[in-house]
Amino acid sequence: MGRLMKTELDLTRRPQVAAAPVSLAGMPVPALRSEMEALGLDPKKARMRAHQLRRWMHYFGVQDFDGMTDIAKALRAQLAEQYTLERPEIVEHKISVDGTQKWLTRFGPNVEGESVFIPDVARSGALCVSSQVGCTLNCTFCHTGTQKLVRNLTAQEIVAQVLIARDELEEWPSAAENRRLTNIVFMGMGEPLYNLDHVADAIDTISDGDGLAIGRRRITVSTAGVAPKIPELGARTGAMLAISLHAVRDDLRDEIVPINRKYDLQTLFEAIRAYPDLGNSKRVTFEYVMLKGVNDSAAEARDLVKLLRGVPAKINLIPFNPWPGAPYECSDWETIEAFADIVNRAGYASPIRTPRGRDIFAACGQLRSESVKKSAAEKRREAAAADTHLSH
Ligand code: SAH
Question: Do 77 and 172 lie in a common domain?
Fold first, then answer.
């Protein structure tokens, strides 16, 4: 009888296409609650179980329902029957000579994205996560920009990137002392503000103290300038804001960061000024890629200082990272230093970011996967094939 009921419940909520058992790993608490309610638990119990699950999965990193000792055996067995705790498949894992690590993860058939762990010199390190596979923005100096958008990643898929890194670094439980994975940056593939709902849910999950326990002030979201979403990002997530600026004049920015044609510098800066809680302890990071002869003059450094007036800011100067067929060169070292000097003297921290992981194509702007979006016709053919498969 119990079995029968379960099956009936299942049919009401699962699509009738053959699907692998659902993994709960990385799932935000509200979704976990719905899963537990679908199993037949009353809302109060579902809530409690969801909280227990997320602690086992995201604080202790367990990959086996058997390890969940405060969950009744019968329920554990039921969970193991219906769900897994698997991470998405790691297609490739590379380690750079400088210690940077890169994972290529398969989120689904033909949906592969990259994440990069950048260990710091001090006792901290950042995981750079992707929010989309591919990108719609077409910034001319960015390798990801040459890959069409495949799709948005779900919150669970974003969180799974953190689980994978923490597995690899063996840093469970989350509060492990001296952990090396201390920060998250949304600076991988994609434009996070074109996927804000999932990004916000992922940040809730990553910052949960009974979960992955990486505080909101240690999470940075970078945007190329989706102005209307910027204040909303701050209100919903409390994350730190980074802006991919790269040019200080509209004519140049229109060309190299084309979203500027939609939201020009004035619109962008109005949105940035509306970001909640900005101050000395919460500064906006401005990323500025150094492109030889394009945006690296002393005059532009001075204009940058003017543009930033009144905004609590720090500036990351990023030496351009080359990729095959890129139409740019990196500025000369002296030029970068001269640029940094002008910005520094105006009172802004402006570290020149040492390129990391260039040898494994893990540096800023070098991420790209082979995934391509399927046509609607292809998807229909696949669904039809799955249906036939089911009926056999
Ligand atoms: N779409 C978001 C998130 C990506 S962040 C955004 O644009 O902010 C990736 C950062 O690397 C961005 O600042 C991007 O401008 C920068 N970048 C892209 N290509 C680069 C390259 N070839 N060399 C150095 N930095 C690059």
Answer: no
Q: Ligand 1: which atom is nearest the Cα of residue 246?
A: 15
Name the residue range of residue 79's domain: 22-84
Q: Is the CB of 187 under 6 A from ligand 1?
A: yes
Tens-place pLDDT, residues 243-265? 999 999 999 999 999 999 999 99
What separation in Å is there between the alpha carbon of 366 and the centre of ligand 1? 8
pLDDT digits (tens, 9 = 90+) for 271-284: 999 999 999 999 99
Q: In total, how many domains does the chain have?
A: 2
Q: What is the spatial distance between Cα 248 and Cα 257, in angstroms, rounded to a whole number?
A: 11
Any atom of ligand 1 within 6 Å of the Cβ of 193: no
Q: Are strands 22-23 and 83-84 parallel, antiparallel or unpaired?
A: parallel
Sign of the dihedral defined by the CA atoms of residues 193, 195, 201, 204, in that order: negative
**Does 187 share its domain with 70?**
no
Domain for residue 347, yes or no?
yes
Q: Can you tell me whether residue 60 is helix, strand or coil?
A: coil
- Catalytic site includes residue 135: no
Distance 166 CA to ligand 1 centre (A): 24
